[in-house]
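user: can you give me the structure for this one chain? tokens are fine.
assistant: on it. calling the predictor now.
[tool input]
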Amino acid sequence: MARDKVPATPAVRLLKQHKIKFIPRTYKYEGKGGTRTSARELQVDEHEVIKTLVMEDEQQRPLIILMHGDCEVSLKHLARQLKVKKISPCTVDKADALTGYQTGGISPFGTRQSLPVYMEETIGKLDRIIINGGRRGLLVELNPKDLVNILNPTSVSVAI
């Protein structure tokens, strides 16, 4: 990738500010393609591609949950672990407004509002993760330890 071709998204700026080593990974974005498309385009295991999902509890308190691309979130287990009655996905408009990113390009780094971050516990055991860099078609490859150091997510076990 040519010098300075990486979009200066808030996520990329935050990673650079924290001196995190990352590899920008771009691909042709497909609407509704999800992690299956990005994994295929980048020729990586979908398990290493991490989804950034914006959810809310029954009091409409928002949160981010990070999940392996090839897994789903058990909303029932997540609610139980967070000691709330119910967890549900935010609307697209609300997720975009809270994060400052466009759905399909939401990164957990550099969100407009500071949101609590929860992470499937097995993500931290990977050698690398590939996660959204703040724009559709832009992922960043990095060590999950760096994600933990910046975001200090709460580990949960909610994958299905």
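assistant: here you go. The chain has one domain: 21-156. Residues 21-156 form a domain with the YbaK protein fold (CATH 3.90.960.10).
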